[in-house]
Design brief:
Number of strands: 13
Oligomer: single chain
Number of helices: 14
Strand content: 5-15%
CATH class of the largest domain: Alpha Beta
């Protein structure tokens, strides 16, 4: 579709939403990218199924799966990511917006001039105060927390800065539930040469692939391990030369392969250990697939220079030694020994992982029910307030 065609289509979708009667757009779910649907889907199933509500699903991306669901209780609208999205946010008339959009009211997407209750849903277990801006969560009314650490961090920031108290809902983390349900055991190990290592770094100039990619690949293959490199999708866009250098040297090696398809899952299930840096995938892998993660201790990725003022260690920092081990960059040569150590006692590791998961994540197995019930409770309160005025 041409630029003009997209503009006209987005305008028509925006107008169609605006024409809906008020009682047909009380609950709006906004999706910024196609990745959001996987986290929203189970909550929407609860809302439209068990709880019998209809919702409006408003998306920026025309390829968003939420726009093509065979569910009469989902009203889909694609408004694009330009002018009409900005106007949509500024003029929204609805009771509730549920979203995974970060930094509401901090950038071009503002709170509506009309009264709307904004509900933020986390799509990761990472903490609120290091990887994101210090005020990324300040302008929501309710936050669906994946774990108790996020609730503690938000309350601490509110107390330090005199912010209004938000409603914090113990929600959970669907991706973890999905991995626990779908996981399968990696191939059994008879000797170290059968170990399959998944190298899954985050992206950026100061991450392990950019800093040590060739060296890491050489060390792991020289140890006799099978190595799957699964880079963050941004790597191909931002620093493709890093991937090209590795595949240029090792692409024909019989124990090396490169996976760039985001939907691919066999490498997650068939590997025995992951190596990463600050990628959130490490927490999913360790807590969801119950396999060890080896973290290379490069400086953390932070968009908040004042994160230490809360006096709380970020979850993605504290959890590393609990779901695997941390190794310094100057000790890369010792990685094969560390991997063998991590895989030495799988039963003890499983017990440790279960304890960490139980303490760190809300409502395992019932997160969608918790979120949907909280949203409906808010809707009922808003309806009662209208009736009293």
């Amino acid at each position: 579709m041409s630029g003009i065609g997209r503009f006209i289509s987005n305008w028509r979708q925006y107008r169609a939403f605006k024409r809906l009667p008020g009682d047909e757009r009380k609950i709006v779910v906004f999706s910024e990218s196609t990745q959001d649907w996987h986290h929203h889907a189970t909550v929407i199933d609860e809302l439209t199924g068990r709880l019998g509500r209809s919702i409006c699903y408003v998306a920026s991306d025309p390829t968003d799966p939420g726009l093509r669901q065979d569910n009469p209780d989902i009203r889909p609208f694609c408004i694009g990511d330009g002018f009409f999205r900005i106007v949509f946010f500024q003029t929204l008339q609805a009771d509730i917006m549920v979203t995974q959009l970060l930094d509401l009211d901090n950038k071009d997407l503002k709170r509506s001039v009309h009264p709307v209750h904004y509900v933020y849903m986390f799509h990761s277990l990472i903490s609120t105060h290091m990887a994101d801006h210090e005020n990324s969560f300040d302008h929501y009314d309710t936050i669906l927390c994946a774990g108790p650490h996020q609730a503690e961090e938000i309350r601490q920031r509110e107390a330090l800065h005199g912010l209004p108290a938000k409603r914090l809902v113990p929600h959970g983390y669907f991706r973890l539930e999905q991995l626990l349900a779908e996981r399968r055991a990696a191939p059994p190990l008879g000797n170290p040469a059968e170990i399959h290592v998944l190298l899954a770094p985050s992206w950026g100039e100061r991450t392990i692939l950019n800093l040590y990619g060739l060296e890491l690949t050489e060390i792991l293959l020289a140890a006799g391990f099978t190595l799957t490199l699964r880079p963050h999708f941004q790597t191909r866009w931002k620093t493709p030369e890093v991937l090209d250098a590795i595949t240029g040297r090792y692409g024909e090696h019989p124990k090396f392969r490169l996976i760039e398809q985001m939907g691919e899952s066999d490498s997650l299930y068939d590997s025995h250990v992951m190596i990463t840096d600050w990628s959130g995938a490490g927490m999913d892998y360790g807590l969801g697939l119950e396999k060890p993660v080896l973290y290379i201790d490069v400086p953390p990725k932070s968009r908040n220079d004042t994160w230490q003022e809360l006096g709380l260690e970020p979850f993605e920092m504290s959890v590393r030694a609990k779901i695997g081990a941390v190794i310094a960059p100057q000790d890369l040569a010792d990685i094969p020994n560390e991997i063998n150590r991590l895989l030495h006692d799988p039963e003890q590791f499983l017990e440790q992982i279960a304890a960490v998961r139980e303490a760190s994540v809300f409502n395992l197995g019932t997160s969608a029910t918790a979120a949907a019930d909280a949203i409906i409770a808010i809707a009922a309160e808003l309806a009662d307030e209208r009736d009293r005025t």
